[in-house]
Amino acid sequence: MFYWVLKAVLTPILRVFWRPWVEGAENIPLDGPAILAGNHLSFLDHFFLPVVIPRRVTFLAKSDYFTEAGVKGWLKRVFFSGAGQIPIDRSGGKASEGALRSGVRVLRQGRLIGIYPEGTRSPDGRLYRGKIGVARMALEAGVPVIPVAMIGTFEVQPPGQLVPKIRRIGMRVGPPLDFSRYADMADDRFVLRSITDQIMYELMALSGQEYVDMYAKRAKEEIAAARAAGLEVVDLRMETLHTEFRDVGAVIYFLRKVIWIVPGFTVERYRERLAELHERIRTTGPFTARTTRFLIEAHRPQ
Fold it and tell me: Which of 58, 104, 154, 231 could cross-link to 125 by cystine, CB 3.0-4.6 Å?
């Protein structure tokens, strides 16, 4: 009951301020079980999908929402429990088995499950490697997986921002993915990985996001490590700072302050690459702004 009351209250607010649009809504069945697998850009993702479809969606929500202490934690617990959401332990292994079994039970009741295969919100708006729990649920319950790409929610409320911006958001829903041919292979990790990668590929195609072949949780840890080391996390896809460099000193000053988060990054490896770049500049000699971009790209961790 709380779910429907909440939807009745929030729907007009969300429609007026954020005017959500949806493409491919016809791919969501009017009845029968299915998994809605989405990219996870913002806390708001939980709210916009239920607004545009008439059926109830039961989300697998991180267990932190149900265990946080204090008044804020109590409010979250009441909200998510009242909305019928299922807590999931993201540490993996046996800790997540209970939640996955609960998800399978919901699917066998003919309902819709919403899940974010990345396991946590994207730290920078890119799409990260999916966890195989979504594939296991699909095979054990024998249901299709429907990719749902959220568009624009990262810009409206990225992680860490309290008040969302007013900006139109959207959703693209892809055709259902049928994995019934793997029905007897729910314990084969290679099959589960292959299925998960296919789901993430569909989400990448629908969302237009850049794909990063690493887990979002690890990316967050590496960003935290970089900041702890006194580095600033910068995405040069959004910057044109290299056009301002005219001398070696400016490049060195800039590269001492920034880092790119890519697969295989460690703070130690960053410092090794910086030392390599120092030597390269020392032996190359003077250069112009034209070669600055090359040096920056050469410094990018591989």
Answer: 154
Token couple for 296 = 């920056």
Q: What is the DSSP letter of 83?
A: T
**φ/ψ of residue 35, rounded to 5:** -105, 125
Give CA–CA dist 42/155, Å, rounded. 9
Residue 43 carries which side chain, given as an amino acid letter? F
Long-range Cβ contacts of 151-157 (<8 Å, 24+ apart)? 151/207, 153/41, 153/42, 153/44, 153/45, 153/48, 154/41, 154/42, 154/122, 154/125, 155/125, 156/18, 156/42, 156/44, 157/42, 157/43, 157/44
Quick count: other Cβ atoms within 10 Å of Cβ 54?
9
* CB-based contacts of 238, cutoff 8 Å, min separation 6: none
Q: What is the per-residue pLDDT across 79-97, written as a single tens digit (0 to 9) for each?
A: 777 667 777 765 655 666 7
Which tokens in the block code for residue 181? Answer: 């041919």
pLDDT tens for residues 141-178? 999 999 999 999 999 998 888 889 999 999 999 999 99
* Chain centroid offset of residue 196 CA: 14
Q: Categorise residue 273: left if φ over 0, alpha if ψ from -120 to 50, beta otherwise.
A: alpha
Decide if 34 contacts 112 (C-beta within 8 A): yes
Distance CA 22, CA 122 (A): 21
Question: By the 8 A CB rule, do 238 and 244 touch?
Answer: no
Per-residue burial over 24-49, b if 16 or more Cβ lie within 10 Å, else e, is beebbeeeebbbbbbbbbbebbbbbb
CA distances (Å), 109 to each of 57, 58, 73, in order?
13, 12, 30
What is the token pair recorded at 41?
């850009």
